[in-house]
Write a structure and sequence with these properties.
The protein is an all-alpha fold and 200 residues long. The chain has a single domain, classed as Cytochrome c oxidase, subunit III, four-helix bundle (Four Helix Bundle (Hemerythrin (Met), subunit A), Up-down Bundle), CATH 1.20.120.80. Helices cover 81% and strands 0% of the residues. The protein starts with a helix and ends with a helix. The relative contact order is 0.15.
Length: 200
């Protein structure tokens, strides 16, 4: 009787785990859609406010171009990790995830440097010397970085599990979910950068 009960419990746990796995991607996409709506609202508000006058025009810090190149490159290394795990190539998977993580941190650093450069050039988020254009730019970049934190945490978890060989060609959902979110953050930043670069 005990063995039957244990088997039933194990089967129930497997069913719950399978249901959670099936729900993971749809939930991620719902989260992504909500983030898209957030930034669509912010950029729309940016356009409306810019047309109302008293709008400071300034050049974006050149380091943001480097920042953009870094995140685009990180998307390529993330894609390489996806390909590698499908072939059970653990070494390449680990290296690719590690490189993606390092590029993510480098993106953070260049964004911080960009904010410092803006401050030197008299662009502030708040205060007597601030302007709505600078406030919008900084809040948009800041919110993107906050979502990047989630991506970095997901990368750290994926890399740790990969090092422990908890992924395989038959079970790589964790890496796939991380990749979807990371590629989204990449596309989102490219859109935001081009928007802020051409619409000033």
């Amino acid at each position: 009787m005990k063995e039957v009960k244990i088997k039933k419990e194990n089967l129930h746990k497997k069913e719950i785990k399978l249901a959670e796995r099936k729900a993971a991607k749809p939930l991620l996409w719902i989260g992504i859609v909500s983030i898209v709506m957030l930034f669509a609202g912010l950029t729309s508000a940016y356009v409306v406010r810019a047309q109302n006058g008293n709008w400071q025009i300034f050049e974006l810090p050149p380091i943001l171009i480097i920042s953009t190149a870094l995140i685009v490159t990180s998307s390529l290394t993330m894609y390489l990790a996806q390909i590698a795990i499908r072939k059970d190539n653990y070494k390449l998977t680990n290296i690719s995830l590690f490189l993606t993580l390092m590029l993510g941190f480098a993106f953070f650093y260049t964004q911080y440097q960009g904010w410092q450069e803006l401050a030197i050039n008299g662009v502030y988020f708040a205060g007597k010397k601030s302007n709505a254009s600078g406030s919008f730019l900084i809040i948009i970049a800041f919110l993107h970085l906050m979502h990047m934190v989630g991506g970095l945490i997901a990368l750290i978890v994926s890399l740790t599990k990969s090092l422990l060989k908890k992924y395989s060609s038959a079970d790589s959902l964790g890496i796939e979910l991380t990749a979807i979110y990371w590629h989204f953050l990449d596309i989102l930043w490219v859109y935001l950068f081009l928007f802020l670069y051409f619409y000033r």
